[in-house]
């Protein structure tokens, strides 16, 4: 039997919908257009569940790390930050979430920030995020502001004792994508350009605050700006901070380490992408 005859006898017995997995060729699906969107979303988000209540996320975070004293202390420390308390009190204006915990585990394990960079010594806990969105004064688009609070451990350094600058760029890109999601109908934007200015060295084992704001929206384009600072407090054996000044974002010792600007574009194939940022 010739090779051509053998190939004619072989026929695939399963459809793409049955064989697709989150680790499969999503790029191929993008090329197939909107008809493949349901395949991606059905596999990535079973039963269409893309959002989880904040309280459930907090419980999930505690359950994922039983007995983790370090994580518990970080959560307690973050809850003492005046900025965090203010954001939680203004729940009508800012919506609290922990986006990476809302990503299905099958997807999260392959996610750069939510998976590869997460864990003890790295991004020690899933970042807390507060988002405020409102309709733009010019046009039908929406603009938004995001405040993200997270902890960077000691295993993400470039030079010993200093956080790698590339990590700061990644975190800007991550939070900016979350910020511009409100600007596009699909809730999805991809980075077209990202500029980061490094102002001061970033230290490990610190709690960081990253603020982002969508400053302009034109059709499928959105511009966002932000800055990142750390609080002058390393996590130690205590979960109660006596000096509140150490936890104030405008207090002495707070260091603004970098600023950034970016342009995001809503891709034409957004319908075939898995939405992990949409609020």
Automatic annotation (TrEMBL):
Q: Give the signal peptide range.
A: none
What the entry lists under SUPFAM superfamilies is as follows: Thioesterase/thiol ester dehydrase-isomerase (SSF54637)
Q: Which Pfam families match?
A: 4HBT (PF03061)
Classify the source by domain of life.
Answer: Eukaryota
Ranges where the Thioesterase domain occurs: 161-227
Q: Which PANTHER family match?
A: THIOESTERASE DOMAIN-CONTAINING PROTEIN-RELATED, UPF0644 PROTEIN PB2B4.06
Kindly provide the name given to this protein in its UniProt entry. Answer: Thioesterase domain-containing protein
Q: Which organism is it from?
A: Penicillium atrosanguineum
